[in-house]
Amino acid sequence: MPLPIGAPPAMPEMGQGNMDRFDATLANLLARRRLLASGAAALAGGAIARAAGGFSRPAPDAGLVGRPVSGSFPQKGAMIVQRNRPPLLETPMEVFNDNVFTPNDRFFVRWHWADIPLEVDAAGFRLTIGGAVKRPLALRLDELLKMPRISYAAVNQCSGNSRALFDPRVPGAQWSHGAMGNARWEGVALSHLLELAGIDPAATRVRFGGLDKPLTAVDPFKKSLAVNHAMDGEVMVAFAMNGEQLPMLNGFPLRLIVPGWFSTYWVKSLDSIEVLNGPDDNYWMAKAYQVPTTPHANVVPGTKEFPKAPISIMPPRSWITNLKDGATLPYRPRIGVNGIALGGDQGIRSVDISIDGGKSWIASRLGPDEGRYSFRRFSTVIPVLAHGTMTIMSRCTNEKGEAQPMAPNWNPGGYMRNCVEACTVRLV
Amino acid sequence: MRGARIALAALAIGALAACSGAVREPASDNGQQAKFAALRSTSIALPEDDQTFGEGAAVAPLNAHCLACHSTSMILYQPQLSKAQWQAIVDKMRDAYGAPVPADQAPAIVDALVALQAKHADGR
Questions:
Q1: What parts of the sequence cross the membrane (chain B) (predicted)?
Q2: Which tens digit of pLDDT belongs to each residue from B23-58?
């Protein structure tokens, strides 16, 4: 049978199993195109103008505009579709104005590999714990559910959140600020599981893998933590998110929670825990998600070579959520400003507001404290000095005294933006 | 062999299309008991993603080599990138992500990416 679009090239050096999987996925794709070519697409005026979910094709230089908002993803409400397959779904900013916790059906989604889990049989699922341990384990979900539980609120933020705001721009998923969310997680402390397995005294790191798989014979997505971190009693194997089981796209049935650290470590659909006796040379720890070791992971734009380290702790951030950047509002002498702040791996000491470009700051009132790793609301009322344009900034300082810098950072990966963000409104 | 696979895949896609975006979760009968006495087996179907870069020789390398692993949007939403940046991305796809692209076909992909962006930048 002739293929409508280029046949997959022969790759004799690849394992047969992998080639089969790649072939099957490619065949799926080609079959879909063939169906379209055979008539269905003719309805769309000849061009393949529309896929499910109203996905539309924007210009590649569309910047922050032009991303379709779709409610067509399973277990998800309206989300900004950065990529259909594998899904990259961003939370619209207005969601963060509604509640300090992000609803599961609005929580951002990010997958690396094409082969993501779409089905999990709860009875058949096993979490394996192996490597440098005395007693390798294969735990059932019902066994995990009977273990002692821990629970806390924690922000899950993509390493590349706000990447689209980098100047000069950098390649990668072009997230605005919505590659983040805050949830109350419930599960079993990782330290409890590692104690059950009995880790080797010489163990160095603990590595985590999930059900998502590459289609080709390359390193699967795995991340690791130092043993001391893994044993801190806070890192969690979570089975619940905001009081419900996790949506499939957020990592059902189990997700690693690494509070205070960027999301790249929060392995989704976690099914393997491996205790290592040496360094982790997997691509995803050794090569990917590396940031400059300079303050704020900042280097001169265009720099390619610099001392690097795997990304880790989140720095403080804050966002005004009740006013939309660029909005025009009727004039009033005073205006309420509120939003959400994140301390990183610390609680929040203060969030201050500036209306003079950062020369002076006004303290805001902090909302209820849901824990050091949670979003926390801030609010204040500020004077409006005159009709016209007004730029409002928020600056979070965390409990260790680390404050958001005024200057944006730059690095080629588009990681760790945490500068003070400006919200400009017109009051007429 | 491949023909049979494609036919099967077409059937599977047809079935998926009927319930695209649907979630099937068996009803839980222990809702009154303690939370998370059990987790419910779950399966999902993702929305269709049948978009290509269109027809013609200019985009054929992209249709052939990029879309098995990700949708067009991954490329279309990138900011304006230099040829060297596109080259680095194609190298990464081949080396780190194992894209089965022979070395002699990589330059055509890079050229197609640069041309695609130039075309969009021209507003055509």
A1: none
A2: 444 333 333 335 677 899 999 999 999 999 999 999
- Token couple for A360: 């002076």
Three-state secondary-structure class, residue A232? coil
Question: Which range is most confident: A31-40, A102-111, B6-15?
Answer: A102-111
pLDDT of residue A62: 42
Best of A29, A89, A213, A268 to disrupt the B interface (most B CBs within 10 Å) is A29
Q: Which residue in A377, A414, A425, A367 sits closest to A176, CA to CA?
A: A414
- A64/B contact by beta carbon, under 8 A: no
A423 and A321 share one domain: yes
Instruction: Give residue limits of the domains in chain B.
Output: 1-48, 49-124
User: CB count, 10 Å around CB of A391?
Assistant: 14
Hey, is the C-beta of A20 within 8 angstroms of any chain B C-beta?
Answer: no
Q: How far apart are CA A349 and CA A332, in angstroms?
A: 30
Tell me how close the Cα of A150 comes to any Cα of chain B, in angstroms: 13
- To the nearest whole percent, how much of chain A has pLDDT over 90? 82
Mean pLDDT over residues A358-363, rounded? Answer: 97
Contact A121, A248 (CB under 8 A): no
In the stretch 233-292 of chain A, residues with CB closer than 8 A to chain B read: 239-240, 243, 245, 248-249, 252-253, 283, 287-288
- Averaged pLDDT, A303-327: 96
AA identity, residue A121: D
Cα–Cα distance, B47 to B22 (Å, whole number): 9
Burial class (CB in 10 A: 0-12, 13-18, 19+), A132: buried
Q: Which residues of B touch A85 (CB under 8 A)?
A: 46, 49, 70-71
Indicate whether A221 and A346 sit together in one domain: no
Would you mind telling me the total number of residues written for chain B in this entry?
A: 124
Q: Does A60 touch chain B (CB under 8 A)?
A: yes
Per-residue pLDDT, averaged over A230-234, amounts to 98
In sequence order, which residues have a C-beta less than 8 Å from that of residue A13 and are 6 or more positions away?
Answer: none
| Full residue range of the structural domain in which residue A389 is found | 317-427
Distance from the B111 Cα atom to the nearest Cα atom in chain A, whole angstroms: 16
Residue A308 domain-assigned (yes or no): no
d(CA A362, CA A355): 9
Does the pLDDT of residue A36 top 70, yes or no?
Answer: no
User: Was domain B49-124 assigned CATH 1.10.760.10?
Assistant: yes
